[in-house]
Amino acid sequence: MNHKSMQSINVGVVGCGYWGPKLIRNFYEIPGSNLRMVCDLRPDRLEHVHNLYGVPVTQSFDELLRSDVAAVAIATPVSTHYRLARAALEAGKDILIEKPLTDNAGQAQELVELAERNGRILMVGHTYEYNPAVEYLRNLIAQGDLGTVYYANAIRVNLGIFQQDINVVWDLAPHDISILIYILGATPITASARGRAYVQPGIQDVAYVTLDFPGGVMADIRVSWLDPCKIRRLTVVGSRKMVVYDDVEPTEKIKIYDKGVDGPRYSDTLEEFHLSYRFGNITTPAISNEEPLKIECQHFLECVRTRQRPRSDGRSGLRVVSILEAADHSLHNGGLREEVHYRC
Ligand SMILES: NC(=O)c1ccc[n+]([C@@H]2O[C@H](COP(=O)([O-])OP(=O)(O)OC[C@H]3O[C@@H](n4cnc5c(N)ncnc54)[C@H](O)[C@@H]3O)[C@@H](O)[C@H]2O)c1
């Protein structure tokens, strides 16, 4: 569709702390988006945004809901998601809500049902699903280039940003969980987690999560707000090849290692059984450096226009929350393996 004939969507954004301004910038810049209003409780943040974009601002969410915005993007703390999303859906708005959808599966399910009942778009900001490197990895796996996927390992650590309403699992693991579901095309059966709260009492800042997918595929996720280095790395090991996706790398985000280990097809004795290691080439494919959040916002606007179901719809948000809930139970239960109960 050319930009001139594209129906323009009136958008409002709630929350202009750390993440909200990135949404605001995209909805300000993207053709076919009409940024109409920004809401936050903090006047200083509103003044900053108003000075940058000249957009009307308000401290009242009700005022934003009464305005002519058709679509609302919510980038407020997780503990506020349910209340704000519910009010927006009841006011007839389509919504893009930041990850995780809510801080419990019961409320996530309510939002999914409310959106479906009211015919509203509910999209969750699983930004990595719109990342060209993740898309590349998904295609590699789907085409069988890695062979059978054995296991995956994700590391997402940094110094900060400490949250006060959720622990590090709820804050950082949604990214890796949504990536794993997207690239493996499967959902985990069980989750377990161990973690510790070192800085803020009762709020775990370091955690190790393990997910078991069907077919014996195991995935480990290490998340931390308490690490000297910023690492965002996912390794996927298959029977034919191995891949490392390093999101901190500016250009060479994906490296494909033609490495592996083969056993003899037949052997009758232990002496005959020798493993042979394969050390082949390492390839670094060219990957588009388009901003994932821009792709995500464009997809949201397209869904609002065409009424198609978003790629990261409410149900996928609910799936991620169900997994987080199981991991969180385990975290508070000595690391015991918990079955994930999906409500959709
Ligand atoms: N997709 C990503 O990669 C990504 C990255 C960072 C954060 N996030 C998500 O974005 C959301 C916000 O995170 P953040 O780090 O920007 O938080 P933040 O605390 O920096 O900002 C939140 C803002 O919301 C405002 N706010 C709080 N309650 C409000 C209310 N009732 N009405 C209006 N405004 C209100 C606060 O004043 C603040 O300015 C979270 O869900 C977080 O998980 C996503």
Structural commentary:
The structure is a single chain. With about 350 residues, the protein is an alpha/beta fold. The chain has helices spanning about 20-30, 45-55, 60-65, 80-90, 105-120, 130-140, 170-185, 290-305, 315-330, and strands spanning about 10-15, 35-40, 55-60, 70-75, 95-100, 120-125, 150-160, 190-195, 205-210, 220-225, 225-240, 240-245, 255-260, 275-285, 340. Strands 14-13-12-11-7-10-9-8-15 form a nine-stranded mixed β-sheet, covered by helices on one side. Helix 7 (about 170-185) crosses helix 9 (about 315-330). The longest helix has 18 residues, at about 315-330. The chain starts with 8 loop residues before the first strand and ends in a 5-residue tail after the last strand. The mean pLDDT is about 95. Nicotinamide-adenine-dinucleotide (NAD) binds near residues 15, 39, 41, 42 and 78. Nicotinamide-adenine-dinucleotide (NAD) binds near residues 16, 17, 45 and 80.
